[in-house]
Amino acid sequence: MLKPKLISFFKSFAFFSVLFFIVTSIAAILGNRITSKALDYPNLWELLLVISIGLAFVVAIVLMWNTSRQREQINLFIAKMEAMRHDTEYGGKVLLRPEDPLAPLANAVNNVQSLNRSRTKILQQQASTLNALLENMPLGVLRIQPDHKIVQTNAQAIHMLHLPDDVEGRPFENVFKNHQLLSIVNRALEQQQSIREQIMVDQLDVDIFVTYYQLRERHDELLVLLYDMTEVKRLQNMQADFAANASHELRTPLASIIGFSDTLLDGAQDDPEVRSEFIEIIHDEAEHLLALTNDILTLAKSPRSDKLIEEVHVAPIVDKVFSMQEKGRQKLDLTLKNEVTAKTIFNQCEEDVQTILTNLIVNAVKYNRQAGSVSVSAHADQRQCFITVSDTGMGIPSDQQERIFERFYRIDKSHNKKIPGTGLGLAIVHDLVESLSGSIYVDSQVGVGTKITVVIPNQIEK
């Protein structure tokens, strides 16, 4: 079979051959009549036929070329419109001469193409921003369609719910392992309303907010937001425990002071021995109350951003703290060893270094055994400062070593009632080291002793 273009060409050629032959024949006959004589051409009709065929051939060629060119342009327009419909790459603009009949159509397609490119770029930017937001926000996010399929999620949700990586496109019933979560999502879909609840997912306390919304007519979705409240709950419990413990610890010395004061006012002050004993007890309880208040205020203080960083000579600070513990040293006949060399220098806040050493040494002295020892060592490199305080005291059971930095925590409360203190010293050290982005390590054995090592940054100016 001949191709459609050739068929069209032959049809045009035949049509114009006949047309031109008829036109030229009519012109020749009319010319003879006007001039009243026959033209002196013996082969006139053959000549007219040749001319007609030649003209028809030229016209048919021009028409075929023009039609082919227009068809290619239209196919190009169609291809571009299809590409724009499917959001694929659709190349450059269509360039035609202004006098071309399809020039207005080309301009219209070019304008739509430019508009589509601008909109696609904006949508891509918005999608990138949304994806970055979803991946970096502290919330777990899932989008669920009415057919129960998960269409979008983020890494936080996958981590919190222990979902597989290929969760998108799968029904949520096939991947959710928590029955409470399944129930909440099903209820939101059935009732077509938003629901908020708090549930336990494994060891996490999760606040779940399921929002039912409509994207467009007859197209609804669920947005599931998961917020890990575990740390918030832990801090709330710590605050509640701290308030209860602080109230109890404050009440005890205050009750003693009031009780012994009332006894003195009721007449005991007339006995010199009783008066002296009671006043000494009141003094000790007042000192304990002051120490407790100072420790609570220390814990409540926000870390300062304007700390003075300077060269801190550690050995003299250790000697100073040892001298402050002379009474405790004599009571237990302890040996205090300052193993810090005179060349040991920290680039840190001197107040922070002294606070750490004071609390660690005070604890090592208080909880030591008779005729025991306390050793302090320290060194620094270009990045970090190291402080180690070792004692030969009662030691800490392995199952309680993680709790010794809790506020008011005592290892054996019944045994430690005889040991003065606020129970906040190690908590102060822990909070301070944490604020300095440092670390603290405990190595302890019951009946042998305890070694606590603190590592903090050495803030050398560059």
Helices, strands, pairings?
Blueprint: H1 4-35, H2 44-85, H3 103-136, E1 140-144, E2 150-153, H4 155-161, H5 179-191, E3 195-201, E4 204-216, E5 219-228, H6 230-265, H7 272-300, E6 310-313, H8 314-324, H9 326-332, E7 335-338, E8 345-348, H10 350-366, E9 373-380, E10 384-391, H11 413-416, H12 425-435, E11 439-445, E12 449-457
Parallel strand pairs: 7-9
Antiparallel strand pairs: 1-2, 1-5, 3-4, 4-5, 6-8, 9-10, 10-12, 11-12
User: Helicity level, as a percent range?
Assistant: 40-55%
Radius of gyration, rounded? Answer: 47 Å
Strand order of the largest sheet: 2-1-5-4-3
Shape: elongated
Task: Quickly give the structural class.
Answer: alpha+beta
Distance, first to last CA: 86 Å
Q: Which CATH class of the largest domain?
A: Alpha Beta
Number of domains: 4
**CATH architecture identity of the largest domain:** 2-Layer Sandwich
Note the main sheet: 5 strands, antiparallel
> What's the CATH superfamily of the largest domain, by name?
Histidine kinase-like ATPase, C-terminal domain
Q: Give me the CATH fold name of the largest domain.
A: Heat Shock Protein 90
Main location: membrane
GO cellular component, one term: plasma membrane
Catalytic activity: ATP + protein L-histidine = ADP + protein N-phospho-L-histidine
Keywords: Kinase, Membrane, Phosphoprotein, Transferase, Transmembrane, Transmembrane helix, Two-component regulatory system
